[in-house]
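tool=predict chain=A
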Amino acid sequence: WQDGAGKQRGTETAETFCWHLGTDGILTVFFEIANNMAINKKSPRISSHPILSRVWAYDLNKGLDPANIGHKSNKSYFWICSECGKPYKAWPHTVIDREGRCRECYKPIKIAKRNAAIIKKHGSIADVQEVMEIWHEDNTLDPKQTCKSSEYRALFHCKDCGETFEREIKNVKSGQYYCLDCAERRRRNTYRQTRINNHDTC
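tool=predict ok
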């Protein structure tokens, strides 16, 4: 195509952009990236993709034909969540990564994947013997699937008195093996012993 001055601007077909002649006589071109992808024969269409075709929101994407849009388009469209059934808007590649789920439904899966990666690299809380010795049997959490830095509040048996207490796993892993009463008693004993040692030194 050529602009108003007769200069060659590109070899794109009319299907790749929409244009209008402004009041000042200058040709204005608006490139539509999604349509660029749609006519690219190397890019499969949304209608033929196993995930995208299943969650495409026909009612909300009025005037758009998924058979004319490439699945690599970087324009956002409406979809129907494959899990909760609610509509949401996202790029096709995001929908593929989430396997058709919306942001909220994919969140627990994303967290699980992140934890799995951390566990694979650094190990799980099940690898910490001191924590497993006081791990409470009423916990529904699998220690083998829980990272050492987890902020989940689990149940433990106090290492001194045996009573049950609740605390974040990462804090217990760092050495907080005692209930509040025993922890306070230990703190006082440590303080008292420090005073005695300092007095003997003097």
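The chain is about 35% helix and 15% strand. The CA atoms of residues 84 and 104 lie 9 Å apart.
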